Each structure stands twice: as C-alpha cells, then as structure tokens.
C-alpha cells in the first residue's frame, strides 16, 4: 500500500474536522428546535475537547513514552484545536460572551487560540530559518559560546603590536567591537532580529582597511569572521527564545483556560439543579 501523501492527508484531516463541526452544529440546532439545552451539549463538547488538547499537549512533551509518533499526536492536537474553535463559535451567542467571568473566559479562549495558530506558523517557519544560518547551538550553551567569542576577540587585539595601524584597530575595537562582543543582544533585536547591526559592524571594519597594514588587516578579517559568528549566534538565540517563550505562554494560558472552563461548567450545572 502506498503511503498517503502529505497534502492528501491534510485535506482529509480538514474535511474530517469540518464534518465533525457540522455534526455539532446539526445536533445543536436539533436540540434548539426541541427546546432543549443546546448550550450544554456544545459547552461540554468544548470542555471535553479542551481536556483532550491538554492530554495531547502533555503527550507531545513526553516523547520517550511508547505511545506512537509525536508528529502524529501534534497533528491530532492541531485539528482538535480547530474543532474546538468551531465548537466555541457554535457555543457562544457572541464572539465575546457577556458577564465579567464569561467575558474573561472568552478573551482567554481567543488568546489561547491565537497563540496556537502562531505556534503552528512558528513551528513551520522558524526551524527553516534556524537551519539557514551556519552552526547549530543548543539554547542552554549559547551564553558559553557568546563568552568564547568575546574571549577570542580579546586575544586577537592583545596579540597585536603598537604601530599606528594597530592603534586605529584597537580604538575601533574598544569603542565598537568590545561592547558588541561583551554584551547580550538587546530586547529590540530579540523581538525583531535583523542584519542591520551585522552590516554596520562589517562596514565599519571595511572602512578601516585603508588605515591598516598586512598584519592588522588580517586581524580585521578575523574580527569580521567573529562578528558574523556572533551575529549568527544571536539570531539563533532570538528564534529559539521565541519558540521556548511561546511554549511557556501557550501552556500557562491553556491551564488557566481549562481551569476556568471547569468552573464555568460547574456553575452551569448548578443552575440546572
């Protein structure tokens, strides 16, 4: 049997999800026509889906368990999330429910849903951007690599003499390069990493070329190599931090949403008693 193509599998998954949402809509309208409590059906369906999403999230973070391929669980998590968004649209009379607690719960659901869609986008794009730069660095080891680059830059400048050309290079190192190598990337860079800083530093080194001699020109070339390496390191740090921050934020908000949904369900049940 030939394996199912990725696009075909995705289409089938979307179709199944839409059919499941259509079934929920049909049952909800049938209950409304019979003067039943359609909101209880959609509400508890949504709560059960949130519970499933929590379990799927836990499974994704425990890859050592022999419970099947993590990528399969990730796909189930994705389409369960789409199903939950559809059920939510059927459940609430407006996008943001009335009442202080219900309004907060609605906003929390929308934020969690938006963060989920961002996670889908990030998981598809960020890994490709990470592999586009040279070197592979573990997130926990990035500070160590940063210190190693700074140390290597310090050894380079200390190993030169005192001639005029070297003095120019040392002055540029003290004013521009040393603060770059010795400091962590700024929050602005972490939020939006660009190549502007890299181009500015390399351009500054290039402008020094007319003042340098053969030995100091070689040193400047080594500095340029360290600038590229440090910039690639900071780029990987920014993207990996973005992924890790998303996981933490999405998980915490999901827990809050699940807890709020349980409270909401308990209160709704008490009104029916």
| Mean pLDDT metric | 85
Classify the beta-strand content into a percent band: under 5%
Main pleated-sheet profile: none
Rg calc: 27 Å
Anisotropy-based shape: elongated
The DSSP helix count reads 9
Secondary-structure-derived class: mainly alpha
In total, the number of strands is 0
Can you tell me the residue ranges where pLDDT is under 50 for at least 5 consecutive residues?
none
Could you state the order of secondary-structure elements as H and E?
HHHHHHHHH
Helix content: over 70%
Give the end-to-end Cα distance, rounded to a whole number of Å. Answer: 54 Å
Task: Describe the model.
The chain has helices spanning 6-33, 38-60, 70-91, 100-131, 142-158, 164-182, 187-191, 196-207, 214-272. The model has no long low-confidence stretch (mean pLDDT 85). It is mainly alpha-helical and 273 residues long. 17% of the residues are buried.
Describe the structure concisely.
The chain is 79% helix and 0% strand. It is an all-alpha fold.
Topology:
Elements: H1 6-33, H2 38-60, H3 70-91, H4 100-131, H5 142-158, H6 164-182, H7 187-191, H8 196-207, H9 214-272
């Amino acid at each position: 049997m030939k394996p199912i193509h990725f696009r075909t599998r995705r289409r089938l998954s979307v179709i199944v999800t839409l059919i499941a949402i259509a079934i929920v809509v049909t049952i909800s309208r049938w209950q409304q026509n019979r003067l039943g409590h359609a909101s209880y059906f959609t509400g508890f369906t949504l709560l059960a889906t949130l519970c499933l999403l929590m379990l799927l999230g836990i499974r994704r973070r425990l890859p050592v368990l022999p419970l099947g391929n993590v990528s399969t669980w990730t796909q189930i998590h994705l389409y369960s999330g789409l199903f939950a968004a559809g059920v939510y649209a059927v459940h609430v009379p407006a996008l943001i429910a009335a009442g202080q607690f219900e309004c907060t719960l609605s906003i929390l659901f929308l934020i969690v849903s938006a963060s989920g869609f961002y996670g889908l986008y990030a998981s598809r794009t960020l890994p490709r951007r990470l592999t586009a730069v040279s070197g592979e660095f573990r997130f926990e080891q990035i500070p160590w690599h940063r210190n190693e680059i700074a140390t290597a830059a310090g050894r380079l400048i200390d190993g030169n003499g005192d001639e005029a050309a070297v003095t120019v290079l040392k002055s540029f190192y003290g004013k521009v390069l040393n603060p770059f190598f010795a400091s962590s990337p700024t929050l602005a860079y972490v939020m939006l990493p660009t190549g502007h800083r890299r181009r500015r530093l390399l351009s500054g080194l290039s402008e020094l070329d007319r003042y340098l001699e053969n030995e100091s020109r070689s040193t400047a070339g080594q500095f340029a190599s360290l600038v590229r390496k440090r910039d690639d390191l900071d780029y990987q740090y920014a993207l990996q931090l973005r992924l890790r921050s998303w996981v933490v934020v999405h998980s915490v908000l999901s827990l809050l949403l699940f807890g709020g949904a349980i409270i909401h369900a308990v209160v709704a049940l008490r009104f029916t008693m």
